[in-house]
Recover the amino acids of this structure.
């Protein structure tokens, strides 16, 4: 009886690992097999001359370039809005907030972190409906709105990683400031923040990856399939993840399908790169404090 | 979450790092505090907007309409019950598949597999969290769906089954990493004793380590469920999106999240929106309840912490 239980557990654990690995391997293999042959300038620029396409003089059809630019702008704008807010809030929670305040705030930010991304999109959409009813009858979904909603999505990550980076500094480091007779403020800004910098940047990179991959938010807030390069902050735009979704649902030719494989591979590489660099930053930080 | 620095809590609780309550020490502190306050208030703004837009339904007493089985916007029927059922079915079945697998992987990492493989496997699971959701959905559409279609010869392949298999893979890392972080705290303390007592590795894990990490086990289930409920893209791309209650796992379903995405992007008339926002409100309240529950469990498991 006992032997059977033992065997079953061991067998199940091996089975789970094998199943997991084969699922992941087939996912990656499938994507690589179909995606790699499509990689090339044509995937990004189609028939358009590369130089003119980059400068925006020629419209690029059926290719990645407008979606790349759209995603880049989207992520940059979202970061511009979320970074100052998130890092400031994280610093405040880690170093200045009274314990009670800290608890309540953390709970509220935790709730925000757990909110599905489609709700952020719906919020943006509701905002537009509200603006149409009240101040701006011409309000419409746009790049700015999508970036704002994405900023809401990544804000909790930024707050938590900033807070965690400061919280996890070695106790000895936190004593140095008071020991030298520095004020609390000086300790935070001259000793703790520089030391936690790497951890904070790691969090920022993770948040950028999160913003780049999310599809649900932008679907409701202004992304469309054939927008071309974004026309200003209040225009529609294209984005990589939405292009994958759109092509998977409505591809009409083998060429479009191939381009979808290429897009998926490019997006995977982009987020993978961001993820790896955040991971390495985190590791070097751990190594640095453990060594001392 | 990755950081287990035991010195941290003692120190902040000692009050050196946190300044005395309620006083402004320098001009910039006001800025920092308003940033924190603003971030904390966003959740209320989200709730307010959703409630405001679904309010007409509640005031006019048309809730019965909302919880009907029929979604026929052109005939004035806006029932979202099939979507609620679809969401629950999908999330629960994905969890039921992913949870035992996650547990198995954790046991593998913590002693049932070769120690040499434990670290690479953990890295693989962590790396998986970096794969975009839309990529899972995409591969599923072109790899899993045709496979199911040929295997079972039943419908188009876009079904509850396809969605639950994909979603299970998506929530697996969440479950594994949470259980792992809990086991990682429990196992090292117990292993030496258990080994000295001559208890086999499997029995030690089953009868001592797993019961001792019940918090992590529960939290993993709740968080996994929360992620499954909140996911949009998998359901939207793979589940087929038929707005009715499925008869079998091979039938198509529509989740609340996919429903919201579909209706907004097809730009229906404004009367459908009320039912849409009510659906959003239900989704919001569900995930908020899940997170509150998680927070409660967490603060019970480590009473002095504040849930970091």
């Amino acid at each position: 009886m006992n032997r059977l239980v033992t065997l079953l557990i061991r067998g199940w654990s091996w089975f789970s690992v094998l199943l997991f690995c084969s699922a992941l391997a087939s996912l990656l293999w499938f994507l690589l097999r179909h995606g790699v042959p499509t990689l090339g300038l044509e995937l990004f620029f189609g028939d358009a001359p590369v130089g003119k396409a980059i400068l925006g003089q020629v419209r690029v059809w059926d290719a990645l370039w407008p979606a790349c630019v759209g995603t880049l702008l989207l992520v940059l704008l979202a970061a511009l809005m979320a970074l100052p807010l998130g890092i400031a809030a994280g610093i405040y929670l880690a170093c200045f907030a009274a314990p009670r305040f800290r608890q309540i705030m953390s709970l509220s930010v935790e709730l925000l972190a757990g909110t599905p991304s489609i709700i952020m999109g719906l919020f943006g959409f509701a905002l537009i409906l509200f603006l149409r009813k009240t101040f701006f009858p011409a309000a419409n979904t746009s790049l700015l709105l999508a970036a704002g909603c994405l900023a809401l999505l990544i804000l909790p990550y930024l707050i938590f990683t900033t807070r965690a980076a400061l919280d996890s500094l070695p106790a000895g480091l936190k004593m140095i400031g008071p020991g030298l007779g520095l004020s609390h403020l000086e300790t935070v800004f001259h000793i703790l923040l520089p030391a936690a910098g790497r951890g904070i940047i790691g969090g920022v990179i993770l948040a950028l990856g999160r913003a780049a991959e999310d599809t649900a938010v932008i679907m409701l807030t202004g992304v469309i399939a054939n927008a071309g390069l974004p026309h200003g902050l209040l225009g529609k735009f294209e984005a990589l993840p939405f292009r994958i979704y759109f092509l998977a649902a409505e591809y009409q030719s083998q060429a479009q399908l191939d381009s979808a494989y290429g897009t998926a591979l490019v997006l995977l590489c982009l987020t993978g790169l961001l993820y790896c660099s955040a991971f390495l930053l985190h590791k070097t930080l751990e190594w640095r404090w453990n060594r001392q | 979450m990755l950081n287990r620095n035991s010195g941290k809590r003692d120190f902040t609780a000692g009050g050196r790092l946190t300044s005395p309550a309620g006083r402004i020490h320098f001009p910039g502190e006001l800025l920092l505090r308003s940033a924190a306050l603003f971030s904390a208030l966003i959740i209320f703004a989200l709730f307010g907007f959703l409630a405001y837009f679904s309010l007409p339904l509640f005031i006019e007493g048309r809730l019965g309409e909302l919880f009907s089985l029929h979604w026929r916007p052109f005939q004035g029927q806006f029932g979202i019950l099939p979507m609620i059922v679809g969401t629950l079915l999908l999330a629960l079945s994905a969890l039921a598949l992913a949870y035992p697998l996650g547990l198995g992987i954790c046991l593998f990492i913590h002693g049932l597999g070769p120690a040499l493989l434990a670290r690479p496997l953990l890295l693989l699971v962590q790396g998986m969290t970096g794969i975009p959701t839309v990529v899972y959905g995409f591969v599923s559409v072109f790899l899993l769906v045709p496979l199911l279609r040929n295997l079972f010869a039943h419908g188009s392949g876009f079904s509850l089954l396809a969605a639950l298999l994909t979603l299970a893979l998506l929530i697996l890392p969440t479950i594994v990493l949470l259980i792992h972080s809990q086991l990682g705290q429990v196992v090292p303390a117990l292993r030496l004793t258990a080994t000295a007592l001559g208890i086999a590795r499997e029995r030690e894990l089953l009868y001592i380590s797993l019961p001792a990490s019940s918090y992590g086990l529960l939290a993993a289930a709740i968080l996994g469920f929360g992620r499954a409920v909140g996911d949009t893209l998998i359901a939207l791309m793979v589940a087929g999106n038929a707005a009715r209650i499925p008869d079998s796992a091979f039938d198509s379903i529509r989740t609340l999240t996919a429903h919201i995405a579909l209706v907004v992007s097809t730009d229906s008339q404004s009367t459908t929106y009320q039912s849409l926002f009510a659906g959003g409100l239900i989704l919001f309240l569900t995930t908020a309840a899940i997170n509150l529950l998680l927070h409660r469990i967490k603060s019970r498991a480590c009473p002095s912490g504040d849930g970091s």
Observations:
- The CA atoms of residues 20 and 153 of chain B lie 68 Å apart.
- Confidence is low (pLDDT under 50) at residues 1-22, 304-308 of chain B.
- Chain B touches chain A through 105 residues (CB under 8 Å).
